[in-house]
Write a structure and sequence with these properties.
With 183 residues, the chain is mostly helical. Helices cover 69% and strands 0% of the residues. The protein is flat and about 70 Å long.
Length: 183
């Protein structure tokens, strides 16, 4: 008889390791791991099909958010320095870039639009929260958010592999259909 660690315990143990990833030393946004981890299950679970959709979508979302921050830094006061003027510029920037993000979701590689918004939110929380290797630096925040989001599905894969060790787990229907194994 072999001991099987419950998924709830192993996943919690794995989650605890994020204290060493994000702790005080590197100031990384560990919530990005949890967002990517949760998104993995929301998008279909830890399998190749999900990951090939989720990873590029989250990275693209962070990239669109970076563009918003850079455009705001460049043009944020073009209408003046009042709060209303800066907010008006930000509204236009968000409208334009978010529209581009949504249209990008029509492409095959970025079709997982909710994944883009996971990356989008992770980036904004990182840059405006002062997290990342160089706090408030837009490019360092982008790198930090993308890295942390990318680790989330890895954590999901590890937790899933341990939870299902020795079991035959049926592959999701979508994955079978994409791979052609349903024929």
């Amino acid at each position: 008889m072999s001991f099987r660690m419950p998924n709830e315990v192993f996943s919690s143990l794995l989650a605890a390791t994020t204290a060493f990833i994000g702790g005080n030393l590197l100031n990384l946004p560990v919530w990005g791991i949890f967002i990517g981890w949760a998104a993995t299950y929301l998008a279909g679970g830890p399998n190749r099909t999900t990951l090939t959709k989720l990873w590029p979508a989250m990275a693209a979302g962070s990239t669109f958010a970076l563009v918003i921050v850079l455009l705001d830094a460049e043009f944020g006061t073009v209408l003046g320095s009042s709060t209303v003027a800066k907010d008006a510029v930000m509204a236009v920037v968000i409208f334009v870039v978010n529209t581009a993000l949504m249209y990008a979701g029509r492409t095959r590689v970025l079709a997982l639009v909710p994944g883009m918004f996971c990356g989008f939110a992770s980036y904004f929380a990182t840059v405006f929260g002062g997290f990342g290797i160089f706090p408030h630096n837009p490019l360092a925040a982008w790198l930090s958010a993308v890295l942390m989001n990318a680790l989330g599905p890895v954590f999901a894969l590890i937790a899933h592999a341990v939870a299902t060790r020795g079991q035959s787990v049926p592959e999701p229907e979508e994955a079978r259909a994409v791979s052609g194994r349903d024929k």
